[in-house]
């Protein structure tokens, strides 16, 4: 099943996507929603990020090819960081390049795991019971700010730095999915989730033993080799087998050569 979150006439709804038609849900999508009988064609609505997480937990260095690319040792434990809810944006929405603070903006194609029910201290054998489904994610990063600050929060947390979508796929197997990043029609990342160092069941288990995961929360599973910069005007597409394509355009926060204000240190 594919579920979507969308705006129509100023209201936000969830629905089931079938053959380019959205069948509107009533009730909690994470707890047996019902079909209302109302439906819309895809071109009648604005697709939004398919979930509204209270938090986004991200993985650093979780692909073997990415570790090899940078000559890093394989980590013994997951490297975690977080993104705020305010960084989330949806399909076809602009990624805002904060050119007052950064001079390099990178794409990172990732499989995003959407949690379906409250998860606390989940045993490894039961961890997949807490997964609702999967979507495409782009862990946008102000790369030049990452080493400058000695930690990753600033580089990862600007508004629009967490594109998600276009759907949540509930019936895919996360162990063997082709994942790509295509920049202006050119493939830049091309890997498979079988290259994950820490897989989805382990991540749900591990993270839930640190913090409570709530319905709609997202785990970003890390990116593969081939990360690189985006420029204003670029179009970036993250595609994952069995899920779909997430496309966004990069625009400057301060376009047309205008002088951005200096941020206070």
* Mean pLDDT across residues: 94
Text of the CATH class of the largest domain: Alpha Beta
The CATH topology annotation of the largest domain reads as Fumarylacetoacetate hydrolase, domain 2
| Overall outline | globular
Kindly describe this structure.
Helices cover 9% and strands 41% of the residues. It is mainly β and 265 residues long. It folds into two domains: 2-47, FAH (SH3 type barrels); 56-252, Fumarylacetoacetate hydrolase, domain 2 (Alpha-Beta Complex), CATH 3.90.850. The strands form three sheets. Strands 1, 2, 3, 4, 5, 6, 7, 8, 11, 12, 14 and 17 form a twelve-stranded mixed β-sheet that branches. Strands 9-20-19-15-16 form a five-stranded mixed β-sheet, with no helix packed on it. The mean pLDDT is 94.
Summed up:
The protein has 265 residues and is mainly beta. It has helices at residues 64-69, 145-149, 153-156, 200-208, and strands at 2-8, 11-18, 21-26, 34-41, 46-47, 56-60, 79-83, 88-89, 94-97, 105-107, 109-115, 131-138, 141-142, 162-169, 178-183, 186-192, 218-220, 228-230, 235-240, 244-252.
């Amino acid at each position: 099943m594919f579920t979507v979150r969308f705006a129509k006439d100023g209201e936000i709804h969830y629905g089931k996507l079938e053959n380019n038609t959205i069948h509107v849900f009533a009730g909690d999508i994470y707890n047996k929603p019902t079909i209302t009988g109302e439906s819309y064609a895809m071109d009648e609505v604005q697709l939004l990020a398919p979930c509204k997480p209270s938090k986004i937990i991200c993985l650093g260095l979780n692909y073997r090819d990415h570790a090899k690319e940078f000559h890093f040792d394989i980590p013994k434990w997951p490297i975690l960081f977080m993104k705020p809810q305010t960084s989330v944006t949806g399909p076809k929405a602009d990624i805002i390049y904060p050119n007052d603070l950064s001079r390099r903006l990178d794409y990172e194609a990732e499989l995003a795991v959407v949690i379906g029910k409250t998860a606390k201290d989940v045993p490894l054998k039961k961890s997949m019971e807490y997964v609702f489904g999967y979507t495409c994610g782009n862990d946008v990063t102000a790369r030049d700010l990452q080493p400058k600050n000695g930690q990753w929060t600033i580089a990862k947390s600007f508004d629009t730095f967490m594109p998600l979508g276009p759907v949540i796929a509930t019936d895919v197997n996360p162990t063997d999915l082709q994942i790509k990043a295509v920049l202006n029609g050119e493939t830049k990342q091309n890997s498979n989730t079988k290259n994950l160092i820490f897989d989805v069941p382990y991540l749900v288990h591990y993270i839930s033993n640190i913090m409570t995961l709530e319905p709609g929360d997202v785990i970003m599973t890390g990116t593969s080799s081939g990360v690189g910069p985006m420029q204003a005007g670029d179009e970036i597409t993250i595609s994952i087998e069995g899920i779909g394509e997430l496309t966004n355009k990069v625009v400057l926060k301060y376009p047309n050569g205008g002088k951005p204000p200096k941020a206070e240190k």
